[in-house]
Write a structure and sequence with these properties.
By secondary structure, the chain is mainly β. It folds into 2 domains: 6-218, no CATH class; 228-323, Sandwich (Immunoglobulin-like), CATH 2.60.40. Helix content is 12%, strand content 46%. The protein has helices at 6-9, 14-20, 57-68, 337-359, and strands at residues 42-54, 70-81, 84-93, 98-106, 115-116, 119-120, 148-154, 157-172, 175-186, 192-203, 207-218, 228-234, 237-241, 246-255, 262-268, 273-278, 281-282, 289-296, 299-308, 313-323. The strands form 4 sheets. A 9-stranded antiparallel β-sheet has the order 4-3-2-1-11-10-9-8-7. Strands 13-20-19-15-17 form a 5-stranded mixed β-sheet, with no helix packed on it. The longest helix is centred in the C-terminal third of the chain and has 23 residues, at 337-359. The two termini are 42 Å apart.
């Protein structure tokens, strides 16, 4: 199974079971099903448990690759229009790669454009705000109902939580599956807090799954930030002569625990200037610096260094000016006053030092002073 975003990583098999299993009818409905989130809000998740045993090795191998190799995942709100919410599903993997996928969910109908194995998956990422038991999770006749509503401690704060618990059962391709599933949603925002499922199959194959994920941070009731990065160039203005290269140092700054590998590329304002970055790949644990080199015909150019971190892209802008020819250095006059008196001063100091040294009596070994290091300039 190809590695994908949170929708495929965490809910890959289980959401199919949820979509295919029988629904529970409700006797109560609320009048309004609207989102209670705003663009920019997000929730970050980690895998708490991932146990898989199957007579088909590929199933557990796929889940192991997807779940155990995930460093963190996140759901970020991009836009809200009526009952529809545009989400960005973000995943960062332990090998440094990252991925993201856009999802459009409807909190009134429970529909989404997320698919797994070509199967449509209902919206369990986000519910409408201010629901409570025994409200339906969506405003549709077949929607399940909230099992219970209670006050719980969530990430250091008391929150009102809606619980959705039910049994999953069904059959597909000659295999019967069943098991309990549980969800918890923050009542105020509708964001998923945690999810767990224990699923076993019988028939043509036997599989036992035990998966749990949980919210580990958010910026709804906490002061949290998505892991991210920025790029800076030093200098931002480069001068070069024709047939010679002009260089700038590109520095990657990792923010809020960002661990993904950032791939660098360059774009120039004209084909008459050629630029490259070395190295072009900045993995976690490396130096996080790269050298931009540009060479071309005379002119003034704009260069954009693009950093792609899998789900986040940031740029650094540099201006490159290429002159027609190198500017020759003007020879200094031997009789110039600063150089003349400076030479006399240096000669006197050297002579005095030699005189003092020669007058010293022979003794122990002399330790030569080390060369002074030049302090690094912080970008």
């Amino acid at each position: 199974m190809h590695r994908s975003t949170l929708s495929n990583i965490v809910f890959c098999i289980t959401l199919i079971a949820l979509a295919l299993s029988a629904s529970i009818l409700s006797t109560r409905a609320v009048t309004a099903y609207l989102p209670a989130v705003v663009p920019g809000q997000f929730a970050q998740y980690n895998v708490l448990k991932d146990s898989c045993h199957s007579s088909i090795p590929q199933i557990c191998q796929s889940l192991g690759t997807s779940l155990n190799d995930t460093t963190y995942s996140a759901v970020q709100v991009v836009g809200v229009s009526g009952p529809a919410v545009t989400l960005e599903l973000i995943s960062i993997f332990k090998n440094g790669t990252g991925s993201h996928e856009a999802a459009i969910v409807n909190v009134a109908t429970g529909t989404s454009n997320v698919t797994v194995f070509s199967q449509g998956v209902n919206d369990y990422f986000l519910l409408a705000g201010s629901l409570q038991a025994p409200d339906q999770i969506w405003n549709t006749p077949s929607a399940r109902t909230i099992t219970a509503t209670s006050n719980e401690m969530v990430l250091g704060e008391m929150r009102t939580v809606n619980f959705l618990n039910f049994s999953v059962s069904g059959s597909q391709y000659g295999t019967t599956y069943s098991g309990p599933a549980g969800f918890a949603f923050d009542q105020s925002s509708g964001l998923l807090i945690d999810f767990n499922i224990k699923l076993s199959t019988t028939g043509t194959s036997t599989t036992m799954l035990d998966i749990a994920i949980r919210m580990v941070d958010n910026n709804v009731w906490r002061s949290a930030y998505l892991p991210d990065f920025d790029l800076r160039a030093d200098p931002t203005s480069v001068n070069a002569a024709a047939n010679t290269s002009g260089n700038s140092t590109i520095t990657l700054h990792r923010l809020y625990g960002f661990t993904a590998t950032v791939n660098l590329s360059t774009t120039t304002s004209a084909n008459s200037l050629s630029c490259s970055v070395s190295p072009s790949r900045l993995p976690m644990g490396g130096s996080d610096t790269s050298t931009l080199s540009c060479k071309g015909f005379p002119g003034r150019y704009s260069v954009l260094v693009r950093g792609n971190g899998g789900y986040s892209v940031h740029n650094a802008s540099i201006t490159v000016t290429v002159s027609t020819a190198p500017i020759p250095l003007q020879p200094a006059s031997i009789l110039s006053m600063p150089l003349f008196y400076g030479g006399i001063g240096v000669a006197v100091i050297v002579a005095l030092a030699a005189f003092v040294f020669l007058r010293r009596k022979p003794g122990g070994g002399v330790v030569a002073p080390s060369a002074a290091s030049t302090p690094a300039v912080k970008a």
